[in-house]
Write a structure and sequence with these properties.
By secondary structure, this protein is an alpha+beta fold. The protein has 18 helices and 18 strands.
């Protein structure tokens, strides 16, 4: 309760005594003022105490921090600013031996903010001198217009960055980038494919795969859960380099338009090397053709995208069909008297082989007539069933989008004449990759192979058996005879027991019909014949060479010698020792188809 300034009792008492009541009020007011002053003093003292404690604690914290910094090891300061991350680190790609095929490199992007520029005209002129590919007029227009931001270069070198910096233009700015680097250049270009920038900002850019394994495994390569674990391919880069060199030499020597080659492990399906010419450098990937034939582009993979009639390489499949069904054995005589007439069609052989040939010699001599008669005996159904099991009805399930989108060309109506022509590789078109897969199945004991570009730990489990091991062994012996005494005698490599089949097919014209002097020549081989380990397919597009005074285009003269050189160069690299006992005197015969 607040004490009144004029207490009634004291006022009445003062009046009775004749005293002045105002004196009582003055006394009470003085007492109250003293009490108020004491309260304010105590409050001020409390605040000063709290403030003193705060300053003391602050000085103690600062002192402790200074002591801690003085006692610590000096380190570079790390920025803790929050920067939005566009993309994670992209994992490396390595070959089967751990060699780097694709990795990342820190680089810089150049962009401009015209409103910040002091001298736009000088900036445009300076950039045009540093980067001759830039359009000076376009730069000047952009810098003097209403644009507030524009990219100049997505990737520049440190030297170029310094030159731009020396221009002293505040409106030219740099942004950190991580670019994809392919240290081997053109080697394995069609396998790796390439990468480019996707979503991007001034502080970072997303690196995405646009072709090859870069595209197929894009999510895997960008997965942060892998913690940077590299993607290991089945490719051997040393073997890849040797194959490309030999193939390039063959293209030049044979005046070919292009070429493709595949080396595959016959049991695991691993592709150890795959080359296509012409090729490109994925560090500077060319643009896709917008008109004309896509096969003319260096981006086109002739090994996995090129759909060709592969000619007489298909004959071994027909022999396998008839052997598996028990219709013939390797010594059964087949009527080869020609020409074989079927309605308005006539089937002829490259040479006149007489009235009869054994099944083995039908393959060795590459008789169209003999193979066609075997096809008629087995029937269209058996042929379709075998070719479907070998994968010729579908795209190859390889880890390349380009391969998975390429399907063989089959006849709309599988007539008797289709059955006969398909038996020797005409009327059906497939990729060299299809052919390599089928030859691996035929040569490894009859087990279906699933080709892969990823390094495997062993043979694929639960493999489907397409033909018996006995039939497989017989077919390999036939293919070996093609090399020792048939159309592929130039393919013999001492100690490696090469077994294979040639194929030469006229190139079709875009409007129908076939060219007279343009062929696709192919040699498909397995080796060593005594214990097959590898399959090699070499295809040349429009080869031509003059030998013995004549122009030669058939596979025996073109694809076969190139294949032999690849085998001789690659097998020591892959550690396959030659069988010295199998190397003897070589006898070469005239090379046919």
């Amino acid at each position: 309760m607040r004490t009144p300034l004029r207490p009634l009792a004291r006022v009445l008492d003062a009046r009775e005594k004749g005293e002045n009541p105002d004196v009582i009020e003055a006394e009470e007011r003085a007492i109250r003022n003293v009490k108020v002053q004491m309260r304010m003093r105590r409050r001020a003292e409390s605040r000063l105490l709290v403030l003193g404690i705060f300053f003391f604690a602050s000085f103690m914290v600062v002192g402790a921090r200074m002591a801690s910094l003085a006692a610590s090891v000096p380190t570079e300061p790390v920025s803790t600013a929050s920067i939005p991350q566009i993309a994670n680190q992209r994992a490396d790609i390595i070959d089967r031996n751990g060699e780097i095929l694709a990795t990342n490199l820190a680089t810089t992007a150049l962009y401009a903010q015209p409103p910040l520029m002091v001298d736009p005209k000088a900036a445009a002129e300076g950039l045009a001198q540093i980067f001759p590919d830039l359009d000076l007029a376009k730069l000047s227009e952009d810098f003097s217009g209403k644009r507030k931001f524009l990219w100049i270069k997505k990737k520049i070198s440190p030297e170029q960055q310094q030159l731009v910096h020396d221009l002293g233009e505040p409106g030219l700015l740099f942004g950190p980038r991580e670019m994809r680097l392919y240290p081997n250049g053109k080697l394995a270009a069609h396998i790796l494919g390439g990468a480019s920038f996707g979503k991007e900002g001034v502080n970072a850019a997303e690196v995405i795969g646009i072709a090859g394994v870069e595209r197929y495994f894009d999510e895997t390569l960008r997965d942060p859960a892998r913690d940077g674990e590299p993607l290991q391919l089945s490719i051997d880069m040393t073997a890849q380099s040797a194959m490309r060199d030999v193939l390039a030499g063959g293209v030049k020597l044979m005046s070919a338009k292009g070429a493709g080659a595949i080396l595959m492990d016959i049991h695991t399906g691993e592709i150890l090397s795959m080359a296509s010419l012409p090729d490109f450098d994925p560090n500077n990937r060319p643009r896709v053709l917008t008109e004309g034939d896509q096969s003319d582009s260096p981006l086109f993979n002739r090994a996995s995208q090129g759909v060709y009639e592969l000619g007489s390489t298909f004959k071994i499949f027909q022999a396998g069909i008839n052997l598996e069904k028990g219709l013939v054995n390797e010594n059964t005589m087949i009527d080869t008297k020609g020409p074989l007439k079927w309605g308005k069609f006539k089937i002829r052989d490259f040479h006149d082989y007489g009235k009869q040939l054994s099944v083995t010699d039908v393959i060795v001599k590459s008789s169209n007539i003999g193979t066609a008669r075997m096809a008629l005996a087995a029937g269209a159904g058996a042929q379709q069933e075998m070719l479907e099991k070998l994968g010729f009805f579908d795209a190859v399930p390889l880890e390349l989008n380009e391969a998975r989108q390429t399907r063989p060309l089959l006849p709309k109506r599988w007539s008797d004449i289709s059955t006969m022509t398909i038996s020797y590789g005409h009327g059906i078109a497939a990729t060299p990759l299809h052919l390599a897969t089928a030859y691996a199945t035929m040569g490894n004991g009859g087990y279906k192979v699933k080709p892969t570009i990823i390094k495997q730990k062993g043979v694929q489990p639960d493999r489907e058996q397409v033909i018996s091991e006995r039939t497989s062994q017989k077919l390999v012996k036939m293919l070996r005879a093609v090399v020792t005494r048939g159309t592929a005698s130039f393919g013999e490599v001492k100690g490696y027991e090469v077994a294979g089949k040639t194929g030469s097919a006229d190139k079709p014209k875009p409007g129908g019909g076939y060219y007279d002097k343009k062929v696709i020549s192919t040699f498909a081989s397995v080796f060593p014949a005594s214990n097959p380990k590898y399959v090699l397919v070499v295809t040349l597009d429009e080869p031509s060479i003059v030998a013995h005074g004549e122009e030669r285009r058939t596979a025996g003269w073109t694809a076969v010698p190139v294949s032999a050189e690849i085998v001789s160069r690659l097998m020591p690299i892959l550690g396959l020792r030659p069988n010295v006992a199998s190397a003897g005197n070589l006898q070469y015969t005239a090379a046919g188809n």
